[in-house]
Write a structure and sequence with these properties.
It is a single chain. The protein is an alpha+beta fold. It folds into 2 domains: 4-199, Ribosomal Protein S5, domain 2; 203-369, Alpha-Beta Plaits (2-Layer Sandwich), CATH 3.30.70. Helix content is 40%, strand content 22%. It has 11 helices and 12 strands. Strands 1, 2, 3, 4, 5, 6, 7 and 12 form an 8-stranded mixed beta sheet that branches. A hairpin with a 6-residue loop joins strand 9 (327-331) and strand 10. Helix 2 (95-106) packs across helix 4 and helix 4 runs antiparallel to helix 5. This is Galactokinase. Residues 96-181 form the GHMP kinase N-terminal domain. Residues 14-61 form the Galactokinase N-terminal domain. Its EC number is 2.7.1.6. InterPro entries: Galactokinase, GalKase_N, GHMP_kinase_C_dom, GHMP_kinase_C_sf, GHMP_kinase_N_dom, GHMP_knse_ATP-bd_CS, Mevalonate/galactokinase, Ribosomal_Su5_D2-typ_SF.
């Protein structure tokens, strides 16, 4: 990875080249890995994500003509210009930043226009929430440059609204909250109903552990039908059980559901909610190595009950565990993306090699990630 100062300088220069003026500020936000608590967020449950040391930067400058422009450092993307009143009708990659500007405007934030220049280093489609990193960086930029009095939960809500109402992805608030609220060295225990949070130290370095993220390079899209189908099944299961959301469900009641699909979907959510608190207790007790088997149990549940894994990902989980990982699981929305593996530091290279050798498709990209700070102003 390049030094942050070098990235910030490049983003500043790109803004000046595009707009012949200095930006009002440069802001960044990280991607995230969810240690445990997959698909519990949209069931009003608990999650335990941590921000990673891969970020997206946004240089922002105000304008007063009712126009918003956004351009990316990615040579495969075209600059987009839109009138303020049409931001919620944006499509393609620009729907994420422009949708966030629209959501903030709906909350009364911002002048009548913006120039935005984006540079992202969070891998796309890998289950590391590149979209939330982009939305969170834009939200912080617009809020701070507008001198708006919004807390970070409000900024997270704007990013989520952009995904829900503009992009069309029915995601919960976990990804944006993690990107905006996480602290270095810690995971964020987030109650997705009350929005109560607690920092939970990971203690990886002291325990001689590292976390690998193995990108299968099988891309997923949360706006497609698979994710929406799982979410609809959760809503239907909660209704059948007579509870507000599946976080309120009892496992015995879930096992009594007549519909096999609803029973399995609900069983994953209820058992995953329990796994969140099992991991929190292990971390509080200074036993991060004990988290490994819980990750493996989570993957089995996501594969068998929630049915969001795919063979290429299952092969990577098996390879990682066979080469010395204490546990591994699919992360993100599912249907591809990445595997998270908890690994003794002495075995990191061996696990990475085994995963590359086990690939059923393109050779996976293996990265070690560290728990990093949330969104911030860099210039």
């Amino acid at each position: 990875m390049r030094a942050v100062d070098d990235v910030v300088d490049d983003v500043r220069k790109a803004f000046v080249a595009a707009h012949d003026r200095e930006p009002d500020g440069i802001f960044s936000a990280p991607g995230r890995v969810n240690l445990i608590g997959e698909h519990t967020d949209h069931n009003e449950g608990h999650v335990l994500p941590f921000a990673i040391d891969r970020r997206t930067w946004v240089a922002a400058g105000r304008r007063d003509d009712g126009t918003v422009t956004v351009r990316s450092s990615d040579p495969g993307t075209e600059p987009v210009t839109a009138a303020v009143g049409t931001l919620d009708r944006t499509t393609g990659w620009a729907a994420y930043p422009l949708g966030t500007v629209w959501a903030l405007e709906q909350a009364g934030v911002g002048p009548s226009g913006w120039d935005l220049v984006v540079h992202g280093e969070v891998p796309l489609g890998a289950g590391l929430s590149s979209s939330a990193a982009l939305e969170s960086a834009v939200a912080l930029a617009v809020s701070e440059c507008s001198r708006a009095d919004l807390d970070r939960f409000a900024l997270a809500a704007a990013g989520r609204r952009a995904e829900n109402d503009v992009v069309g992805a029915p995601v919960g608030i976990m990804d944006q909250a993690a990107s905006l609220l996480c602290r270095e060295g810690s995971a964020l225990l987030l109650d997705c109903r009350s929005m109560a949070t607690e920092d939970v130290g990971l203690g990886l370095e002291a325990a001689g552990l590292g976390i690998l993220v193995v990108d299968s390079r099988v891309r997923h899209d949360l706006a497609d039908g698979g994710y929406a189908d799982r979410r609809a099944a959760c809503v239907a299961a909660a209704k059948a059980l007579g509870v507000p959301a599946l976080r309120d469900a009892d496992l015995a009641a879930v096992e009594g559901l007549a519909d096999d699909v609803l029973r399995r979907r609900a069983r994953h959510v209820v058992t995953e909610e329990a796994r969140v608190f099992e991991v929190v207790e292990l971390l509080r007790a200074g036993r991060p190595a004990g988290v490994g088997p819980v990750l493996s149990a989570s993957h089995a549940s996501l594969r068998d009950d929630f049915a969001v894994s795919v063979p290429v990902v299952d092969a990577l989980v098996t390879a990682a565990e066979g080469a010395g990982a204490l546990g591994a699981r699919i992360v993100g929305g599912g249907f591809g993306g990445s595997v998270l593996a908890l690994v003794p530091r002495a075995a990191l290279d061996e696990v990475a090699t085994a995963c590359r050798a086990a690939a059923l498709g393109p050779e996976p990209t293996v990265r070690e990630v560290a728990p990093a700070p949330g969104a911030r102003r860099d210039l």
